[in-house]
Amino acid sequence: MQTFLIKKFLLLAAILILCAGCGEEKKDSPENALAEIQTALAERNFEKLSARVDSEKLFAQIYDDATLELAANYDYYKEKYPDDPYFQHDAEFLKKYNTDFRDLHLKFANDVRAAYFAKMPAPAIPEENPQAYVANEFEELRRVVNTEIQSIVVDKDSAEMFLTLKGDSTLRGQFFGELTFKLGFIKDGEKWHLNKIENLDELTPPLVDKAEVVWINFF
Question: What is this structure's pTM?
Answer without folding.
Answer: 0.85
